[in-house]
User: Fold this.
Amino acid sequence: MLRRMHHAAIICADYAVSKAFYTDVLGLRVIAEHHRAERDSWKLDLALPDGGQVELFSFPDPPARVSHPEACGLRHLAFAVDDVRACAAMLVARGVAVEAVRTDPYTGRRFVFFADPDGLPLELYEVPPRTGDAT
Assistant:
């Protein structure tokens, strides 16, 4: 049965801008990068610390997609962090517009939304480290 999410795939409008955002701003590590000449497409595999991945794709003239958080389909992509306020401050320092930090009324955990260069809604969700986790 399902164990965890392996990857999220994102088609970006400007590959270079999105690559810089996900690597330089969010700090994801490049696993592999390939140009697929037959498709005139780039594919970039990025590593998350837990083993999950984000894949970035470029395609010539991709169709626009509604990406408002309340539209049907994928609502947002959320990343677990130890300290939402510190991560939000880091994003702001790097020029990223970040919404106000909120608290989930059901879990009591803090979270914040921001967007990637194509307007894809992203969330940071505070999940304290488990006892015994390395920091």
Q: What stands out?
A: Helices lie at 15-25, 84-93. The radius of gyration is 16 Å.
